[in-house]
Amino acid sequence: MPHHAASQLVHFFDQFGVSVPVSGTSDSPIGALDRDNLIVIGTGRTLSPFRQYLDRLDLKMNMLDEYVEDLKPVAGKTSLYKTQHQSAERLISPGVVAVLPADGSANRIVIVMAIYNTSALVSYLTSQDGQRDLENARSAAGKSPYFEALIMSEIDGSVPLKSSLVFYRPLSAASLP
Fold first, then answer.
1. What's this model's pTM, rounded to 2 decimal places?
2. pLDDT of residue 107
3. Which residue, 148, 167, 119, is CA-closest to 59?
């Protein structure tokens, strides 16, 4: 887990009295899902230990070509969300946030995945705007506990400037392999 993003999430949950243990993806805490909910933060490469969960998503991240593909686009919408390099340091890049059921338990896995900067996604998720956007999208979609969302983040070097929700798709437990 990138340390800055993990620190942001730990601080965010601390405000609500929720203790969040932090470990790296190299520790592969996937076995903890039978005891706890799990939040994983990283890139398509660093989250490879969680491939069985990433494969359930209709949003597929291509690290080499720097895009996210939507395998089930809404009619008239694009299926590719590409990174846009505005300068050597400044870019707009897609990221994915998803909540899925854990295999064989009542727990959940939260996936926060970016091509470049996971801190931008975490900043968005822990902001009032991000929480409002996701709650509004969740309410409009029927309040399913599982979802995948595409978020575009503008980044200058390592500094997240702004992020916005592009779309939110509810997922039903029955439709997940």
1. 0.83
2. 76
3. 148
